[in-house]
Design goal:
about 190 residues; rod-shaped; 7 helices; Elements of external origin; mainly alpha
Length: about 190
């Protein structure tokens, strides 16, 4: 066989065997004496005789549009690493998106490793522990005036002499007022973990 069979030529040009048979019957293919197809000459003749409006164009791949938030995230990741990022509204190249993806994967692996080493803790757990510690501290201060008022009153009475007696109840009331004022000012401080 000097040239190609119908099947071989169909596979070579990306058409069905039926389309090649129709082209052969219409005389748009160049054949060798043994009936095989001369590929180069047939390609040329088909290009000359085929109506361009009847040719099939390969379908454009249907790509889903990329959300603007995803493109912005790629730009943010690249900028965080000191790399060039696309301008807002400008297209992100495949290389930039791939670089951002690799950076994010490396950051994720680093965080996972830090968790395994015990360097990172769960945020919710840390907030719960902070709240519990602050509440225990506040409760200790709220009960402190009742515990020390009598002792402080007796020490002040001894220091000032019997002529100036300090009552324990009054001392406790004054201490409680000052401790409450201090705790109220401390309550305005909001620790942030973010």
């Amino acid at each position: 066989m000097q040239g190609m069979s119908e099947r071989q030529y169909a596979a070579n040009v990306g058409l069905s065997r039926g389309a090649i048979q129709k082209a052969k019957a219409a005389g748009r293919l160049v054949l060798h004496e043994d009936g095989s197809i001369d590929a180069a000459a047939s390609d040329k003749r088909r290009a000359e005789t085929t109506d361009p409006s009847k040719t099939r164009k390969p379908p454009a791949p249907k790509l889903k549009p990329v959300p603007e938030a995803a493109v912005a995230a790629v730009g943010d990741t690249l900028r965080e690493q000191g790399l060039s990022a696309p301008a807002v509204g400008g297209g992100t190249t495949f290389l930039q998106a791939k670089t951002a993806n690799e950076v994010l994967k490396a950051q994720e692996r680093r965080i996972r490793l830090q968790k395994l080493k015990g360097e990172l803790v769960d945020r919710a757990r840390a907030e719960t522990l902070m709240f519990r510690l602050a509440r225990d501290e506040r409760d200790a201060w709220v009960t402190w005036p009742a515990r020390v008022a009598a002792l402080m009153a007796s020490e002040l009475t001894a220091a000032l002499g019997d002529a100036c007696e300090v009552e324990a109840a009054l001392m406790q009331k004054v201490l409680e007022a000052h401790v409450r004022a201090q705790l109220d000012s401390l309550a305005e401080i909001r620790p942030g973990l973010g």
